[in-house]
Design a protein that fits this description.
6 helices, alpha/beta, flat, 9-stranded parallel beta sheet, 334 residues, Udp-n-acetylmuramoylalanyl-d-glutamate--2,6- Diaminopimelate Ligase, Chain: A, domain 1
Amino acid sequence: MAFSLGFIVERLGGELHGNPELLIEGLAPLESASSAQLSFLSNPKYQSQLCASRAGCIIVSPQMRETALLRGACIVAQQPYLYFARVTQLWKKSQAQPQEALRHPSAVIHPQAVVDPSARIGALCVIERGARIGADTVLKSRVTVGEDCIIGARCLLHPGVVIGADGFGFAPNAGAWEKIEQLGAVRIGDDVEIGANTCIDRGALQDTMIGDGVKLDNLIQIGHNVRIGKNTAMAGCVGVAGSAIIGAHCTIGGAANILGHLELADGVNISVASVVTRSILKPGHYTGIFPIDENAAWEKNAASLKQLHGLRARVRALEDKLKALNPAGPSDAP
């Protein structure tokens, strides 16, 4: 399968510099692309890879046009990464396989569940009583949707996703634990994508809420009563504890953790592996990572950090003594 550059630009727009008849047989990164492949550059810091790339054509921003032309053919687009995403969609559609049955015969769907006729239910899925699945939503294999949980339209749930397992709620009782029944459900909006083996717990009293357009990677844990605003994205292995509220248009880096009952405002970006221990009410980029180092150096720094509180008290005591000795403040005399 191959597309000409002219066909790609005709379908997706952009400004083509090069032979429109050149056939593109695949997509590849800058450093490994061949003369029959299309690549892209979205970050100027990789300009050296642009100049050295053997790609048949490269998608670039207007700012990189002249540099790209020195190398060869290019497509100029305002947002190269977005343009590349749409090329991948074009490629995927061209490779579409014959449609299979909308409901795999091994799927188990409760008679009181409501599944839109256009939804696609994969092998070994389980949809429990009172669950609802919206139009054009796709459940890949082994997805479980618990009782009374709602999934909107045009969602995509990858293999192993579990929606609506019990939230983690137990009351202490004389050294043992008494289960708190989880009486809420999960409500997922439209155009949501959830990665493989991600789990979203049902609420204890109110529903766990996932807004429209949210994108969740693989192996994410969303605790009970969490609320996530529209178009927020989370990378793999993120953990969100119960009753946290996350705003719209946030990004959460891989393996980050958000403690329970905290609030993140709209537009908050959390770096990879950070631990969010307080509410963040102002948009921006936040990081909570102690830098990696050789173990011996790290242990010394960690030991120093444990003494910071005492050092702070000692510095304040010295400042107080200096003020007592010189209450008028520092002298201007030479």
